[in-house]
């Protein structure tokens, strides 16, 4: 008789462990995918040179073009719409929030240390660059894990 009770209890435990493992693997995939997408976005933004200043021999990033490029790259890589909401059929289910954006240009002395105490981020730039911080929320498949949200940070410098 006790074996009839043991089998369903063990099955429930194994299914709970399977759900936990699946959610953990998807969470790590989501985090790495978001980090890679933000890295691509800031790298693209750092390449948006201010051509007028470059003609005078000054290396500088055009802030308007840089922000547009970063948003476009992040939207393309995470498959977001114009409001940063995920498109139907994608991995994410919640809006991606831009928490911080900074363009560090030639008006600063280099090496320049950018610090954001609110999000616990500090990076040293040796050339003009950009810094971005976004919040990404994990869409749980099962309810085994607590809700997870990451603050993803990235920075990139001008490459030439």
Describe this structure in words.
The protein is of the alpha+beta class and 160 residues long. It has one domain (2-157). The chain is built from 3 helices and 5 strands. It has helices at residues 2-46, 51-55, 63-78, and strands at residues 97-104, 112-116, 121-125, 129-137, 149-157. Strands 1-4-5 form a 3-stranded antiparallel β-sheet, with helices on one face. A two-stranded antiparallel ribbon has the order 2-3. Helix 1 (2-46) packs antiparallel against helix 3 (63-78). It starts with a helix and ends with a strand. The model has no long low-confidence stretch (mean pLDDT 86).
List key phrases describing it:
22% strand; 41% helix; 3 helices; 160 residues; single chain; alpha+beta; two-stranded antiparallel sheet
- Determine the mean pLDDT: 86
Task: Summarize the main sheet.
Answer: 3 strands, antiparallel
Which structural category fits the helices and strands?
alpha+beta
Give the domain tally. 1
Proportion of β residues? Answer: 15-25%
Question: How many H/I helices?
Answer: 3
For the terminal residues, how far apart are their CA atoms?
75 Å
Question: How would you briefly describe this protein structure?
Answer:
The chain has one domain (2-157). Helices cover 41% and strands 22% of the residues. It has three helices and five strands.
Give the secondary structure arrangement, pairings included.
Blueprint: H1 2-46, H2 51-55, H3 63-78, E1 97-104, E2 112-116, E3 121-125, E4 129-137, E5 149-157
Antiparallel strand pairs: 1-4, 2-3, 4-5
């Amino acid at each position: 008789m006790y074996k009839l009770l043991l089998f369903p209890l063990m099955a429930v435990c194994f299914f709970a462990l399977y759900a936990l493992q699946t959610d953990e693997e998807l969470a790590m995939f989501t985090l790495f995918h978001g980090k890679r997408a933000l890295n691509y976005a800031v790298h693209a933004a750092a390449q948006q040179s201010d051509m007028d200043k470059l003609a005078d021999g000054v290396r500088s990033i055009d802030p308007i073009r840089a922000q547009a490029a970063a948003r476009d790259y992040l939207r393309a890589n995470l498959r977001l719409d114009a409001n940063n909401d995920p498109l139907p059929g994608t991995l994410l289910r919640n809006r991606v929030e831009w928490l911080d954006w900074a363009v560090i240009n030639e008006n600063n002395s280099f090496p320049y240390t950018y610090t954001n105490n609110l999000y616990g981020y500090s990076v040293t730039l040796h050339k003009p660059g950009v810094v971005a911080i976004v919040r990404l929320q994990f869409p749980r498949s099962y309810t085994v894990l607590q809700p997870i949200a990451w603050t993803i940070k990235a920075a990139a410098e001008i490459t030439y």
